[in-house]
Amino acid sequence: MVHQAADSATTPKATQETTQETTQERILALLEAEPELTQRMLAERVGLTPDGVKYHLTKLRAAGAIRHVGSTKAGRWEVLK
After folding, report:
1. Which pLDDT does position 24 carry in this prediction?
2. For residue 16, what pLDDT is reported?
3. What phi, psi does 51 have (nearest 5°)?
4. 57 neighbors 63 (Cβ within 8 angstroms)
5. Is 75 left (phi over 0), alpha (psi -120 to 50) or beta?
6. Which stretches of the chain score pLDDT less than 50?
7. Is residue 79 domain-resident?
8. Which of 18, 53, 62, 73 has the fewest CB atoms below 10 angstroms from its CB?
9. Closest listed residue to residue 27, CA positions, set 49, 3, 60
10. Inter-axis angle of helices 12-33 and 39-46, to 10 degrees?
11. Are 34 and 79 in contact (CB under 8 A)?
12. Domains in the chain: how many in total?
């Protein structure tokens, strides 16, 4: 049996990072188009659970890509990057 080195673009970690980037790009595009979307609405549109969306929103906030302005119920999202 011959083992070949895995291509770095197809390793599980690289695939996971690519999927996260794609999901976050979709979330950013949705928030730019409709800044008043709730986490539940985003989850339905992206095909994730509300907790999955919350995870990505936390990552995007930490990266300085988004921020939430206003109250929890009547606020909106601002895309910064």
Report:
1. 95
2. 56
3. -65, -35
4. no
5. beta
6. 8
7. no
8. 73
9. 60
10. 120
11. no
12. 1
Q: Which amino acid, residue 74?
A: A
Range of the domain at 60: 35-70
Report the distance separating Cα 76 and Cα 70, nearest Å.
Answer: 7
> Given this model, what pLDDT does residue 23 score?
94
Any alpha helices (H) in the chain, and if so which ranges?
12-33, 39-46, 50-62
Q: What are the structure tokens assigned to 51, written together?
A: 């907790």
Query: Could you tell me which residues are beta bridge partners of residue 76?
Result: 69
Q: Can you give the pLDDT at residue 73?
A: 87
In this prediction, residue 53 carries a pLDDT of 97
CA 31 to CA 29: how far, in whole Å?
5
Q: Is residue 1 part of a domain?
A: no
Coil, helix or strand at residue 23: helix
Is residue 12 included in any domain, yes or no?
no
- Please report whether residue 54 resides in a domain: yes
Sort strands 66-69 and 76-79 into parallel, antiparallel or unpaired.
antiparallel
